[in-house]
């Protein structure tokens, strides 16, 4: 079973019209992975592409549309990938198989336990530390508010809790007074 932590990501590139016995290769690969109880796999049809034959495949040219690339991806533990690779190697006679190291940071499951089965978060007692971060509301990281990015990261690290407080009045290191925007707006309208 796939779990949080180190894992392997397998990507298989092949043409949509690639055959395996009497059917399509990508369907055979997905069926194989399903029967081997892989946690999940996805096949996506690419918009356009080319391979070692240096021929551009695109839906704009009808004769080449059936040769569009398909990408199959799945993530599993290193042990499981080592078990599956010999069979995949034999199945994929025309294509490319790539394996990368990856890290699973969260597993989302659609089937959730019933309300009765949910256990409360373990309560820990003893010495603890509190971290307070003071920053401006306009501070950003990669286009999102910095406070939002910090809370998301803390949640990923399974920190017990985090709260963002919005100040209504304060001052910073330079001694400039900061007011919450709503009060400034009301004051200038009067």
Can you summarize this structure?
The chain has 190 residues and is an alpha+beta fold.
Question: Any key phrases for this structure?
Answer:
2 domains; two-stranded antiparallel sheet; single chain; 190 residues; alpha+beta; 4-stranded antiparallel sheet; disordered C terminus; Alpha-Beta Plaits
How do the SSEs run, as a string of H and E?
A: EEEHEHEHEEEHEEH
The number of E-state strands comes to 10
Low-confidence stretches: 182-190
Coarse structural class: alpha+beta
SS strand fraction? 15-25%
CATH class of the largest domain equals Alpha Beta
Number of helices, counting only DSSP H or I runs of 4 residues or more:
5
Count of all domains: 2
CATH topology of the largest domain: Alpha-Beta Plaits
Proper CATH architecture of the largest domain = 2-Layer Sandwich
Radius of gyration: 26 Å
Describe the protein's architecture and organization:
The protein has 190 residues and is α+β, with helices and mostly antiparallel strands. It has 2 domains: 5-104, 2-Layer Sandwich (Alpha-Beta Plaits); 140-189, no CATH class. Helix content is 26%, strand content 25%. The protein has a 4-stranded antiparallel sheet, with helices on one face. A hairpin with a 5-residue loop joins strand 9 (169-171) and strand 10. It is elongated, with a radius of gyration of 26 Å. It starts with a strand and ends with a helix. Residues 182-190 have low confidence and may be disordered.
